[in-house]
Structures are given as structure tokens and as C-alpha cells.
Write a structure and sequence with these properties.
The protein folds into 2 domains: 7-196, P-loop containing nucleotide triphosphate hydrolases (Rossmann fold), CATH 3.40.50.300; 214-257, no CATH class. By secondary structure, it is an alpha/beta fold. Helix content is 43%, strand content 9%. It has helices at residues 17-24, 53-58, 81-88, 101-114, 123-128, 130-134, 157-168, 178-183, 185-196, 218-225, 229-238, 241-254, 266-275, 277-287, and strands at 7-9, 30-32, 67-71, 93-98, 173-177, 214-215, 256-257. The longest helix is centred in the middle third of the chain and has 14 residues, at 101-114. The chain has a 5-stranded parallel sheet, sandwiched between helices.
Length: 299
């Protein structure tokens, strides 16, 4: 008999899901698996490899908590994930985090740049390439699904949320606004505990996880990610696996600039804000929330 997960953080990407995973996993009544993103139920999103059913359920085999689950940000943009999750765990609780569309798109682009899966130099170039990218949904050479490079698909929030409400009902779906999570993290996490019906008097470390990063030198980052055969051979000859791992982490940390936060071009911000106003208004109606701040472009 498998242990069936009953809690899913389904996205969206770059909306605080890594931090939510970190906060909730500290609660004694909640178990969230590692790795954080199994990508098991989004069967309509192409990947170079996918874990088996046995591998997936083995992630939870030791869990005995009230809530057992996972966090895969690409479940939100998947049409099949809510259906597949419902078949496996009909009483599951669903957590969704969303963000101002222009900010999410820009943040996702730079995360892909940091992960070396985005080849476009600018967001503007990437957006212009979306129609061509949509014609070829094979996985990238790094294994990332090309869906992750079609940024406009990330922010079809009203339709995506409705898929989960239709599958599970409103009472089983909790929506978080990223700006509110960032502004008052503790308050928003306690709302999640209320939603789940678990104790709130639990000490939680509310430090931010997976904050925006950039590489100081992308050539160094590229070599680290895919070292040439000769360098790999020399490294294996000179160093033990543990020493190679330590060297890799050292070079990666030295080459990472946590303070270097890129800014969205104001004209692109204005364009995206205008483009997604109708979507934002649909969301306001669906969630009964005031999102007027999302409809104002940033200078």
C-alpha cells in the first residue's frame, strides 16, 4: 500500500513556492517531500525523463504526518495535473500562489537565465520567440520542459485556478498573493495553517528561500553546469567525489551575485500590464480580491 499525498503546492513558478515548502515543512503535522518538484502529475508537460509511479510514492513512504505532500510549480499550468491529482487523492488540499503577471514573467525569465536554460539575451527577445517555441515542445538539452520557456502560459491564472476549483471545490483550494506573502510572511503562513486546520503555535523560521540570483560570469557558470570532457577527466583523476563536490559548490557560490537584481524595462512592464489587465480583472472577480495594484505599470 502506498502512502497517498494529500497536500499539493501547485504553483505558480517564482511566486514563493520554495519558501512555502520550507515554512510548511517545519510544522510537525506536515511532511513535504524532497526533491521539492517531482513533476509526476503534469503528464502533459514534456520532459526528457519522468519518475516512475514506484519512485514517486517512495518519496512519501516514511511519512506519518497529518498532511503529506509536495510542491511542483508547473502543476498550475498543466491541464492534466488537477485531473491526475484528483484521481489519486480526491480529498487533497491545494495551495496556489500567484503574482503580478509582469513581475512573474520577468522573474521566471531571469531564473531560466540563471539556470542556463534560456538562450535569449533579453526578455523582449524571449517573448518575441514564443510563437516559434510553442511549435516545438520537446525538452531542452538540459531536460527542462520547453513549456517553462513560454512565459505567457505562466499567467493564465483565472483558467488555471478554475481547473483546480472544478476538480476539488473552493473549500479545498487556498490562493496566496505573492506580494502579501512577501510583505507579511508570518500572517500568510498562519492563514495556510488555518486552511489546513493545524496548530498555529509552532516556531517557524521565516527566512526567504530561492531569492533572485545572477551569475557574475556566465562562461564560468556554463562550464560548471556542463564541463568539457577534458576538465571532467582531469578532475576525476585529481580529486575524490567529495572534494569535487566541495569545489563545485565553492566556485558556484563565488560566481553567484545575490545582490545583482535586474530590473524590468519600463516599456515592457507597461506593455505586459496592458496585455494582462483583462486577466487581472477576471481574477478579481474569481477570487473576490482587489488587485488594482497589478493594473498599474511600474516606472
Amino acid at each position: 500500500m502506498h502512502v497517498i499525498p494529500n497536500l499539493f503546492i501547485v504553483g505558480a513558478p517564482k511566486c514563493g513556492t520554495t519558501s512555502l515548502h520550507y515554512y510548511l515543512n517545519q510544522h510537525p503535522d506536515i511532511f513535504l517531500c524532497e526533491p521539492k518538484e517531482p513533476n509526476f502529475f503534469n503528464t502533459d508537460i514534456k520532459r526528457s525523463s519522468r519518475i516512475s509511479k514506484e519512485e514517486y510514492f517512495s518519496l512519501f513512504e516514511e511519512a506519518k504526518e497529518k498532511y503529506i505532500g509536495e510542491a511542483t510549480p508547473l502543476y498550475l499550468m498543466s491541464k492534466e495535473a488537477p485531473i491526475n491529482i484528483k484521481k489519486t487523492s480526491p480529498d487533497a488540499k491545494i495551495i496556489i500562489a500567484i503574482r503580478r503577471p509582469a513581475d512573474l514573467i520577468f522573474s521566471a525569465f531571469h531564473q531560466n537565465k540563471y539556470n542556463l536554460v534560456e538562450e535569449a539575451t533579453t526578455l523582449e527577445e524571449a517573448l518575441a520567440e514564443e510563437p516559434e517555441r510553442a511549435k516545438n515542445l520537446k525538452s531542452t538539452k538540459t531536460g527542462e520542459p520547453v513549456d517553462r520557456l513560454i512565459y505567457s502560459r505562466f499567467v493564465d491564472f483565472s483558467t488555471q485556478i478554475q481547473h483546480y476549483i472544478k476538480a476539488f471545490g473552493r473549500d479545498q483550494v487556498h490562493v496566496i498573493i505573492f506580494d502579501e506573502l512577501k510583505l507579511n510572511t508570518k500572517k500568510e503562513v498562519l492563514k495556510v495553517f488555518d486552511f489546513l486546520g493545524v496548530r498555529k503555535d509552532v516556531p517557524i523560521n521565516y527566512s526567504i528561500q530561492n531569492a533572485a540570483k545572477a551569475h557574475k560570469n556566465y562562461v564560468v557558470a556554463s562550464i560548471l553546469k556542463s564541463p568539457p570532457a577534458l576538465i571532467s577527466k582531469i578532475g576525476r583523476f585529481l580529486f575524490s567525489p567529495e572534494t569535487r563536490r566541495k569545489l563545485y559548490l565553492l566556485i558556484k557560490n563565488v560566481n553567484t551575485d545575490d545582490a545583482k537584481k535586474p530590473k524590468l524595462n519600463p516599456q515592457t512592464d507597461k506593455l505586459l500590464t496592458e496585455r494582462y489587465k483583462p486577466e487581472i480583472e477576471k481574477l478579481e472577480s474569481l477570487l473576490n480580491r482587489d488587485l488594482s495594484g497589478w493594473k498599474i505599470s511600474k516606472p
